[in-house]
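Hi F.,

I've been meaning to write this up properly since the lab meeting, where we talked about keeping a consistent format for the predictions we share between groups. The idea is simple: the sequence comes first, exactly as it goes in, then the structure tokens exactly as they come out, then a line or two of notes. No screenshots and no reformatting. I'm using this chain as the first example so we have something concrete to point to.
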Amino acid sequence: MMREQAMASLAQYVDKDHDKDAEDKLKREKRWAKILERQQSALIEQEKATKAEEKELSMLEREEQWLQSQQAAKVQTEVQTDACAGQKSSVRALITASQSHATCLKSQLGACVSTEVTQAPTMRCDEPSAGWQKKCLADKAKEMIDCAPNGVDWKAMRRGEVANMHSDNAALDRLSEWCTFHRALGKIEQHKAAVPFSLILSSNAAISKDAVAKLSDFGENFKSQEWDLLQVDPVGSPAPLHSVIVKSESAGKIRKAMSSMKAAPLDLMPKAMNDNKKHGVNAIAWNAGVSGMLQVESNDCSLHSPALVRVQKAPGLKNKLVAQLR
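Output, unedited:
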């Protein structure tokens, strides 16, 4: 009995110690939780500060890079200006191509030639029925009314193919070519006082390094001759207008003549101009050996490009036009 009483008395102290240990443990856990919370909060703030510093550093680096690029561009412009001093070009170039192809063409033309790069309009009609397809084509023609005020010859644009989605979209591509050329003439007309000749290059054009020099010589030597539009190194018949020289003073006349016609494949335009004397436009061609046509748009726009369309020319044809004009 005494043993049981002793054990019962001792149990009270044991329970108290156990409760005290549990309470101490809970307090320690709360203290650690607060410590961890403070540490976590400090880490978050530190991370925010680090990110802010990184962002600021990145902005400073970008600003420095921009300043360096601006300085480099300024130096390059000054070098080009010095190099082009006294070498005023008689040719201005209008390029319709992707950025990479246009960069290649500008490199071939040289730094002293003023260039302007544009993108050809992209149009498609993929309607579920013939009726809606026809309406889509009519809507596209309305959108292009500035360059095709007399409408579109869809039969000619389809090259005689049966009207379907494929031939319609091919026709829209040809309408885009027509309008791109028409609008380029408008730009030339606006700036005709700047240079006497303008070179229009398409997205599949390739040219040699000496193209501008030879074309400038041609323009100067034969500017008094009766020509308004010169197809350079035509490929095929009818030949796509991949490289064309236009007398700047004739741009308005050619544009007016195009506006009086129904829009058709651009390669048919020179012959149509020549056949209809009322237009007063004289389109000629010159096999100068300075230009070519690529099968596909390429980053290599030189006459050594593997994408170049290879054409066999008859012996003695290269300077035939020059001899005739003399």
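Notes:
Confidence is low (pLDDT under 50) at residues 317-326.
The radius of gyration is 37 Å.

If this format works for you, I'll send the rest the same way.

G.
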